[in-house]
Amino acid sequence: MKRILVNKDLCSGCRACEVACVARHDGRFGTATARIRVTKIEPLGVDHPHVCRLCQRAPCVAVCPTEALYRDEVTGAVLLRPDGCIGCSACVDECPFGMAALHPQTGLALICDLCGGDPACVKRCATGAIVYADAGAGARAKREKLTVEGVSDHV
Amino acid sequence: MYSYGGSILRINLTYGTIHHHPTEEHLARAFLGGRGLNVKRLLDELPAHTDGLSPQNMLVFGAGPLVGTLFPGGARFNITAMSPQTGILGDSNAGGFFGPELKFAGYDQVIIQGRADHPVYLWIKDDVVGLRDAQELWGQDVWETTSAIQQELGDSDVQVATIGQGAENGVRFAGVFVNLNRPAARTGMGAVMASKNLKAVVVRGTGLFPVADMVRFREIIEQLDEVIYNHPEYEIRCRLGTTKLIKALDSIGGLPTRHFQRGSFEEADAVSGEAIEELYKVKSKACFACTIPCSRFLVVDDPRFPGLRLEGPEYEPLAGFTARVGNGDLALALKCIDLANRYGMDAIALSEVISWAMECYQRGLLSREEADGLDLTWGNGETILTLIRQVAHREGFGDFLADGVRKAAERLGRGSEEIAMHGKGLEVFQADVRSIKAYGLGNAVASRGADHLRSEPWFEFSNDPEEGIRRYGIPETAFRLEYKGKGLVVKQFEEMAAIADSIGVCKNTYNNMEVLDWEGTAELLRAATGWDITGQEVQRIGERVVNLERLFIAREGITRQDDTLPSRFLEEPLPEGSGPNTGSVLELEPMLDEYYRARGWDLETGLPTKEKLEELVDW
């Protein structure tokens, strides 16, 4: 299953991903309703894109008292039935990664929907810090890197 | 109003009053925003001859219609006021993330007047705006202040535009800094802020603003992204940013070595952008939504400067603290830049006053005793670091330099005025304009004093005479050492720069990479604003902004005789060893004639004619 993979060392911190997300979903420009978030520690030069982890046993889905959150069979994203959401923020409280929020205007749950399988954030990323790919792809690359660098002998 | 924040915020610090009114659409249509709308506001509301440091001065923050959109680098905002450094138009521009946040909070402009009776900072959280006590922050540097405010407000996403100790202590070339390392540094806007007892402007915007046609807007941005990704300069700009210019200018003899005494620098390779990339670069960094991450985060591992980390630098501070002061020690230069940023001072002006003092010393115009015992030998690192600290605190010999080079040279006399490298009181940038003639003209006529960012006429590097004929009817325009036709080049690029600053985009893309022409700009503005604006109208807005700025400085007494540069550029030929530039001087007078003619200005006074103004004042 594809997911948004993050390499924070490649992130320039420009936040284009946030703007692209808001433009796609809200049809306007801003960052407050972004479903992807770049956290910065400016004095250290750290830029860290945070994304929905598509948890297999998703706490947000499990905790939702009105069953407004459900899994998209095709993309694996957690989707929202707006009619069902009561804006109680249980999902926000429960997400271990801080990646659920309430929409500041509608008050309803705000969670990455992977744009139906063509994420706008990834499309706009200029540096490759976020890519939409199989989780295994990242792991394989890591294993290859460890092998090439010869540091996997001791593990 | 599509693509605008929608409101103008007005603060009077004397009375503590805060109110706002809608952004006037007819003014937005005539001046767009940012720099254009700022100078319009100043011309309308600020009396002539206002003292830059008086409570009557207005400090105007403005962000244009493309700020906060998906435009690559739609990040830039302007700060405008009467300059306490030059006594004419003060205006400075920065990128980073402050401008977009201001738009998301709902504001196109923030106009600050008066003077608070104790240090405060302005806190803008969407439509909740207030003044907060900043007495604890006074005396802290840019980095400390930024962190302290983010901590106090409990939000690392708040954007902070702050001054450092330089401004507080009355350094006239002190700037306003955002995102720690990004300065609106030119013309002393930080000094204006300090005079108002205003430590920082802090903003958090959680709103969203609409554009007229989002589908079309995104389409155009996608095309623009392709143009940028395929641009021949894309890769090197991602790697080195503007620091690519150290080697490039060295190779054509354009570096300001030892205060413009030579065009090449023997240590250029050691202090180049390539050297920074190899030794210290950790990652690429970018302004808001920019696809060209031209900035760099550096970790400088040098036992003399423990813990030195910074973002950048741009070419200007780098050349300033290397070639200009005769320093070949790269880590030392980065330390100097870091100090300038933390104290909140303009690195161009700072490197000028220091290198000017060094040349005065070299020529025997200034003794060691007069310089507080400092050894002003070229490249003396200890002296340079000491002087930066002394200027920031207005102590010792630093106090003598802290009003800028024009005032320092007036005070010293002894002919040192002849080698004070400024135009209209603003220190000249880091290139020898005897080797780049359009840049020379651009510096001489720039509305905020000698500066390249009012025009950036890169075309003279193109070496493409056919394109020169196509654009201007003059093949010489394509060659940097020719002066013919440069009046036409500078006119066009001045208008491009005025548009870039007024819509809020970066001149690296808009001027230097020329990613959008007038019609392309109009197309994007149509999608953004819904106006039926044409390419010709965009050009006319650029022309209008340039003319209005000319009116503003004419009010302060500027005429043709002020459109000049130091005699070193005009009379001293570049010395032997300057390659193809050897023997070159700047042929300013014929270029000025050509420029004024192109502008429709009076040749004798260098001022706009009545006919020209009537043609432009049609909104």
Structure description:
Chain A is an alpha+beta fold and 155 residues long. Chain A folds into 2 domains: 95 residues, Alpha-Beta Plaits, CATH 3.30.70; 45 residues, Alpha-Beta Plaits. In chain A, 26% of the residues lie in helices and 19% in strands. Chain A is built from 5 helices and 8 strands, in the order βαββαββαββαβα. In chain A, strands 1-8 form a two-stranded antiparallel sheet. Chain A has a two-stranded antiparallel sheet with strand order 2-3. Chain A has a two-stranded antiparallel sheet with strand order 4-5. The mean pLDDT of chain A is 93. Chain B is an alpha+beta fold and 619 residues long. Among the domains of chain B are: 198 residues, Aldehyde Ferredoxin Oxidoreductase,  A, domain 1, CATH 3.60.9.10; 197 residues, Aldehyde Ferredoxin Oxidoreductase Protein, subunit A, domain 2, CATH 1.10.569. Chain B has 26 helices and 17 strands. Chain B has a 6-stranded mixed beta sheet, with helices on both faces. In chain B, α2 runs parallel beside α23. The model of chain B has no long low-confidence stretch (mean pLDDT 97). At the A-B interface, α1 and β2 of A face α3, α4, α7, β13 and β14 of B.
